[in-house]
Amino acid sequence: MKDVRYHISEKHGEKHGRAGGAPKKSDELQRFGVSMEGYLLERFDQVIEKKGYTNRSEAIRDLIRDSLVEQDWDENREIVGTVTIVYDHEVRELSDTLTDLQHQFQKLFRSTLHIHLDEHHCLEVLVVQGKGGEVKKIADRLIGTKGVKHGKFTMTTTGKDL
Questions:
Q1: What residues does 73 pair with on adjacent strands?
Q2: What is the pLDDT of residues 45-55, one digit of tens each?
Q3: 146-162: per-residue pLDDT in tens?
Q4: For residue 93, what are the contacts with CB-CB under 8 A and spacing of at least 6?
Q5: Cα(46)–Cα(59) distance, rounded to whole angstroms?
Q6: 4 has a pLDDT exceeding 60
Q7: Nearest alpha-carbon partner for 37 in 82, 3, 6
Q8: Whole-angstrom Cα distance, residue 104 to residue 94?
Q9: Paired strand residues for 125
Q10: What pLDDT sits at residue 77?
Q11: Residue 162's closest CA among 34, 53, 67?
């Protein structure tokens, strides 16, 4: 296994934090190295190529942003996301129940995409925005509605803190 030492390059004397506060946000690029087994790097390079990244740095930045968004989830913080559900529209009163929930919590729904997959099944993608706790609660209700065959809630950031 090759041993690559982890290091962070920074400008001499630059402060990365403030007393009693969050680290100062800087747009200046910082350079660092990462140690990993060769097979992991080979697999990572395959993913990078498959996804069309131009270099490892862009891929690593996206992974870090994704991790920060996930760790930063707070039920009181504003988030955006999607609720994706697949259901059989012939299940009694299911379409009405899903529509009623959307109307009842209309302030959380920004947009809806409805697709007829076949003669029985529909896919809905609902774009949601609001406080994390409220959005998660309505997403869980939609996904947990009797007759919904599959559902997934995907949360992301508004981008204000990245």
A1: none
A2: 999 999 999 99
A3: 999 999 999 888 877 76
A4: none
A5: 11
A6: no
A7: 3
A8: 15
A9: 84, 113
A10: 86
A11: 67
Q: Could you give the CA distance from residue 150 to residue 37 in angstroms, rounded to a whole number?
A: 37
* Residue count of the chain: 162
Spatial contact of 82 and 128, defined as CB atoms under 8 Å apart: yes
Tokens standing for residue 37: 């087994």
DSSP state of 108: G
pTM: 0.66
3-state helix, strand, coil in the chain (%, to 5): 35, 25, 40
DSSP strand E in 66-120: where?
78-88, 109-116
**Which residue type sits at 18?**
R
Domains of the chain in sequence order: 1-9+31-71 (no CATH), 78-156 (3.30.70.1150)
